From TrEMBL:
This is Putative HNH nuclease YajD. Residues 51-106 form the HNH nuclease domain. The keyword Metal-binding does not apply. GO terms for molecular function: endonuclease activity. The keyword Hydrolase applies.
Length: 125
């Protein structure tokens, strides 16, 4: 099958031809900028959190929101009741954790981060 023709890099002012959106030089720059701005709390989640999260889900296997509705659903996510926004003390405070199914976690996070009519807040991780 023939390849599509190369086109200029989408980075402003770059004349380099590429088959992707950006040339390899600018793709690295775009990727590093994305990592720095989109996931500012990434270091907290890429730590001992994974092990602790797994243990918490073993101890609290059911979604708290589903339980309130009288439905039994397996929890998949450990949620911070009060969003930590980078505060390490609040992040590691076990009394601030709850087990949720993915659906309820997504709904809660969307409400907190500016979805569903809260357009003044910017959504970010």
């Amino acid at each position: 099958m023939p390849r599509k023709p190369a086109r200029p890099c989408s980075y402003p002012g770059c004349p380099e031809l590429t088959s992707e959106r950006y040339c390899s030089k600018h793709q690295k720059e775009i990727d590093s900028r994305y990592d720095k701005t989109s996931r500012p709390f990434k270091k907290l989640y890429n730590s001992r959190w994974r092990k602790i999260r797994k243990q918490f889900l073993k101890e609290h296997p059911l979604c708290e929101e589903c339980k309130k509705q009288g439905v039994i659903t397996a929890a998949e996510v450990v949620d911070h009741v009060i969003p930590h926004k980078g505060n390490e003390k609040l992040f590691w405070d076990e009394s601030n954790w709850q087990s949720l199914c993915k659906h309820h976690h997504d709904v809660k996070t969307a409400k907190e981060d500016g979805r569903f009519g809260n357009k003044n807040e910017v959504y970010s991780y």
